[in-house]
Amino acid sequence: MELPLILVVDDETNILELLKFNLVKNGYQVVGLTNGLDAIKFMEKDKPDLIILDIMLPYMDGYEVLRILRADPETTGIPIIMLSAKDEEIDKVLGLELGADDYVTKPFSPREMVARVKSHLRRKATASQKIEQNNEIQVKRLIIKPEKYEASMDGKKLDLTPKEFELLHLLALNPGRVFTRDILLERIWGYDHSRETRTVDVHIRYLRQKLERDPANPEYIETVRGVGYRFHETS
């Protein structure tokens, strides 16, 4: 069985070698690159199972690499963990808005990083299996096609990131059920870190902007104050 391939892009040699050492030790193939342009060139010929992407890179920063990968149908579903020395909320929000699956701040624990990699790869595999088993869902003007990872509104395809689609699909499969932020983190991202619940709020906000006529008065995804979110239960 071929080992999962991880692409690590970071211009700090010590970080790159630290990640390569720990990932290889845990059974992964690893390719390490030091700039964004080389990462894009690599992706033209090879498709890794997961990418660890630093923000501050020479020639092309991590945000631009992320934009390019998320715009390409062949790479849009690859889990991407953003890595940065910055711990500002705006940096996290921007990365999540552009379609990142996770965000880790330097310095980090190699053990935690490996755990997150395992979690995202496991989540990707199980999500693919579940998606194949589910049929098309139609709620009012919204149609969700799990087998294609697509959703449309009034016949127009919605431009959703993989995590936005998975959130929408999970909520729509369980109309009326309230999901806490912690549960959504565990079910969609595959890990439990209460300090990361902002990740859920950001994804919900951008999902509503693409889904709702009036995001301030949502028709589909409701907020249950102090608890979490639920998909509107239609009669």
UniProtKB/TrEMBL annotation:
Keywords from the UniProt entry: DNA-binding, Phosphoprotein, Transcription, Transcription regulation, Two-component regulatory system
Pfam families registered for this protein in UniProt: Response_reg (PF00072), Trans_reg_C (PF00486)
Gene3D superfamilies noted in UniProt: 3.40.50.2300, 6.10.250.690, Winged helix-like DNA-binding domain superfamily/Winged helix DNA-binding domain
SUPFAM superfamilies reported for this sequence: C-terminal effector domain of the bipartite response regulators (SSF46894), CheY-like (SSF52172)
Domain OmpR/PhoB-type: 134-233
DNA-binding region(s), residue ranges: 134-233
TM helices/strands, residue ranges: none
GO MF term (any one): transcription cis-regulatory region binding
Residues bearing PTM 4-aspartylphosphate: D54
Response regulatory domain sequence ranges: 5-121
Keyword Transmembrane: no
Cited function: May play the central regulatory role in sporulation. It may be an element of the effector pathway responsible for the activation of sporulation genes in response to nutritional stress. Spo0A may act in concert with spo0H (a sigma factor) to control the expression of some genes that are critical to the sporulation process.
PANTHER family xrefs: PHOSPHATE REGULON TRANSCRIPTIONAL REGULATORY PROTEIN PHOB, REGULATOR OF RPOS
Protein name per UniProt: Stage 0 sporulation protein A homolog
Organism: Pelotomaculum schinkii
The gene coding this protein: phoP_1
